Amino acid sequence: MNGEKAGRTSPVPAEETPALFTGPRWFIPSAVLHELDPGAAGNGRRPRRTARDWIVDFSCFLFAVIVGLTALDALRQNPNVPPGLAVLDQVVGALACAAVWLRRRWPLGLAVAMVPVTFVSDTAGGAGIIALFTLAVHRPFRYAAWVGGVNTALVPLYYWLRPDLDIPYVVSVPFAMLLTVAIIGWGMFVRAKRQLMVSLRDRARRAETEARLRAEQAQRLAREAIAREMHDVLAHRLTLLSVHAGALEFRPDAPPAETARAAGVIRESAHEALQDLREIIGVLRAAEPDDTGRPQPTLGALDTLVAESREAGMKVSLDLRVADPAAVPSSVGRTAYRIAQEGLTNARKHAPGTEVTVSVAGAPGDGITVCVRNPAPEGEVPPVPGSGQGLIGLTERATLAGGSLEHGPTPQGGFAVRAWLPWGP
């Protein structure tokens, strides 16, 4: 698929597409550059020659000409070659040298064509060497093996028809065969080096892509954690606002003292909600330092949470059986606090007026058990809006901490949330 079609089928913004090759290109072979950056050529055309390609092609052409001139000098000194045949040999050799410029476009075709050409023309020997070398570089080994095998098979017949005046037949034939094998071996070495270069670059590109995906996944997980934290923090505050605002709405004739107390709870809950929201938004902003100075709540803040709920009019019983709450790891303590907070929030919304029992027990090596229970409410409970994701988030939070969480109705008609969190020795 060419670059234009790929761009139509998978439109990816330029800033999201990693650069395939960002280094200097003039010294990179066009074939390798095309492997590193398939869209460089565009529209399915051959990649343009780089400056290095021009230098190499000219050097190959010059090599073919020099070998041809050397063979021409030896041809003129050979009395067994008629003048007409020598002229024809020169014409064929000149055409073969000119065909060297086509070696990148048709490496296999040029190498196959050079087999009979080099057999009938001495001056085309340099072009034949270049064609065989190019075939070994640009095509798999089987093509170079077939063409090289045919060349090797024709070597004894060639020197039998055209014996060298200076070198014996038994020396010329092995030397020519060894030269053919050396040319193919050199070409395969260059090909392997190029493939290694492309492989390493492709591996680096995949590593960059995987690193970018890991970074994006880490950001997504961090945002999900912040979203859970936002739900846990704000749900408690906003539930207080909803309950007390509903009480003021349905009891307009309440005593002034009770109305003032509810208004104070609403004001305090709104202030705390704004503070918590400001902290979370500050975390989302990478450039904004976290200078609020408010530590994250842990198990030691559970008494404050219960007291706050009692001030809001809830009946809460706390059974804390942890010898030293401050010794609990911060991550475990924070998770336990959030579980208790979410349990109180749900009880306030769905079972108002009931007595909620919060039990926390544990020791190093045994883990921590958190249980929030409430009986069934009396009478009809007015519906309170909610997302329904609190318990799902708590289950995920407990699982990530290495523990477990269960929730559901009790046989007596109430509701219970029970979690176990690890606490290493």
TrEMBL record:
Query: Carries keyword Lyase?
Result: no
Broad class of enzyme this protein falls into = transferase
Membrane-spanning residues: 54-72, 84-102, 108-136, 143-161, 167-189
List each copy of the Signal transduction histidine kinase subgroup 3 dimerisation and phosphoacceptor domain by range.
223-287
UniProt EC number = 2.7.13.3
Q: Which Pfam families match?
A: HisKA_3
Annotated protein name in UniProt: histidine kinase
**Entry's Gene Ontology molecular function annotations:** kinase activity
